[in-house]
Structures are given as structure tokens and as C-alpha cells.
Amino acid sequence: MKQEKPRFGIDIDGTVTTPDTLIPHINKQYKTNIVLDDVVEYDFLSAFPHPVDRNEFARWFKENEPYLYSVSKIVNDAQRILNHWHKQYELYYISARDQHLYDVTKRWFEEHQVPYDHIELIGSHNKLEAAKKYRIEVFFEDKHDNAVELAEELKIPVLLFDTPYNRKAVPSNVIRVQNWKEANQWIQRHF
Q1: By the 8 A CB rule, do 178 and 160 touch?
Q2: pLDDT tens across 150-183, in order?
């Protein structure tokens, strides 16, 4: 059964929120001075100038997740474009955030006036099953391997928001965009 409006799958962190939104908090906690350009892998610890205990970092992050997500910055133009899209597309946010962060996430969407039809917090980076379940027709992502897997397995276009940590080669149906304006231009041409 085909849905009435085309349905978009949209990642949250690094796609709707700025990809560097967590860096000031990490710098403060670990007395570092990293910037987004230092993060060339999807792993903030790879950018550290000194070794960091991964378990300790994971514990700190878990304890601070609700706060970090509540103060995340929204990417330029995302709110305006998503509000425009909401009139003609269904907006399904599929995020690796854990389910216990649903209230924080929903509150952030409301405070930033970001429209949604559904928010799915799956607790892992494997978004394939959720994208299949909800019959996503286009996906918006910042994580390279997610973008490639979704594009190859589902045979759908995936718009990959360009960052220093996702610059590996991509298949032809992964479309690299610099910002929401470019994403909107692509959608206007193809949907």
C-alpha cells in the first residue's frame, strides 16, 4: 500500500543538529581544543590529541546525553525547509538515540519548531529495518556507512550531509549535499 505523501527518513544528530554541536562540551570536559575538521572518522575520540579511556568517555557521554541533546544547535535552514516540506511530505526521524531520550528529543523538536510525523529512536546505528518498516523513499543522513547501506539495500536516494568524517567514496544513489539548501534543491528537482 503506497502512502499518500512521499515519506522521508531523516537522521537527527549531525543532520538536523549541527555536526559540531557536541564538540564544545567534549572540549570543556576533556580540556581539549578539537574542531570539526579534526574529526575525520565517525568517532570523536579519533580527533583527540591524547589517548582517552573509551569506557570513561562512554560513561560521561551516557550521563550527559539528555543535557547535550537538549542544548543541541539546529543546522542553518533546517527548520524553515522542514516546515515547508511538511506540507507535502511525511517526515519520519530515525535516530540512533536510545528510546529513553524520547521526551528530551520531542521537547527539542517543539522548542525549535521542527515538524515531524514520527520520531523513532532505535538505540543503534542500524537504521535499515526502521527505514524498511516505514517505507522511506528518501533518507537524509550524515554517517557514511549508514548512507551507503540504506542506498544499496533499499535502492533509494540518500542525501549525505558532507562533513569531514564522511568523505569516503559513495555509490551513485548517495548524493552528497553541503547544506539544507542543496538538499531542498535536490528534492525540488526529483520529488
Answers
A1: no
A2: 999 999 999 999 999 999 999 999 999 999 999 9
